[in-house]
Amino acid sequence: MWLQRLKLGPRFNVLLALVFVGGFALSGLALSNVLESRAKNEVTSKALVLIQTMNSVRDYTTTNIQPLLNPRLDTDSTFIAETVPAFAATEVFQRVRKIDDYKDFFYKEATLNPTNLRDKADSFEANLVQRFREESNTKEISGFRDLPGGQVFYIARPLAVGKESCLRCHSTVDKAPKSQIATYGDQNGFGWKLNDIIAAQIVSVPAEEVLDNARRSLTLIMSILLGVFLAIVFVINYLLKRSVIRPIRQMARTAEAVSMGEMATEFEQNSRDEIGTLAAAFNRMKSSLEISMNLLNKKQ
Ligand code: HEC
Q: Quick check: 171 and 115 in contact, CB under 8 A?
């Protein structure tokens, strides 16, 4: 094999390089998978906390604010949006986004038949709502999707008409407060039924945000790995040269000289390791050789 034709140093280095390139590629691949899924989990758990918070805000609005404002909805000419759970959630989320950690997060209650057309589910989001409707066990869907503004990572949860009170504004036009009809019209956001899944609560983050994080960690770890490998190669080469290659070369030169009859040269025994033992054995062999040669010479 061609490797066997190489000298010790290059052979070691070729083998080390092969092992390293393989190991580097494999660990890079495994690591990038692990880091990416960790980054996704991190964003997902943040997003889930946000969705739960938004649901608490919705609940608070329904139980604490609505009873106070309900009487005014029919009499006031302008609609009091503060009584709407969805409005409260959207407003609170705008404030959450002012916190640095959450400035890249987006929130949407993507709805099939929304009161405010801004909340209309696009075809991708409509599919998510549809899936939540069909698969009652699916409580969360996450993944990447391409948008005109770039790729995003999204986390979606189903949103159902959970309370009787929702139906006042979302069932039929005649039940709805007049001020609501005046503001939002009588076309949208009606016909919902109790416990129907009508929307998906979606939190999304630019994919860059998620992947950059993973990539930064990957680059750091791979650079450390590269550094460690270079150090290993350096140390192995140094040790190989110092304790194997150089003494063997010297021994070869000495053996060459002894074979030419220069009996005064000694095999240098500089260490107590295998090479040192070999040098000692060669010296003993050289002495035996000398004795035999002397005997032979005397006989002649
Ligand atoms: C007082 C009337 C009222 C009540 C009660 C009410 N909503 Fe709404 N809802 C609205 C209005 C008005 C909007 C549009 C708000 C906006 O402009 O963002 C809306 C928005 C929404 C949205 C966002 C999509 C859309 O239609 O624009 C969802 C989802 C929603 N409501 C669900 C519910 C649920 C679930 C309940 C019961 C817990 C509920 N609503 C109770 C009036 C109401």
A: no
For tokens 């090479």, the residue is 275
Q: Does the C-beta of 171 come closer than 6 Å to ligand 1?
A: no
Is the pLDDT assigned to residue 300 strictly greater than 80?
no
- Testing ligand 1's pocket by substitution, the residue of 68, 115, 132, 174 carrying the most ligand atoms inside 8 A of its CB is 115
Tokens of 245: 């290659």
Question: CB within 8 A of 166, min separation 6: which ones?
Answer: 62, 85, 192, 194
C-beta 86 within 6 A of ligand 1: yes
What token pair was written down for 179?
A: 């001020």
What pLDDT digit, counting tens, does each position of 94-151 carry?
A: 999 999 989 999 999 999 999 999 999 999 999 999 999 999 999 999 999 999 989 9
Tokens of residue 207, six digits: 């994919």
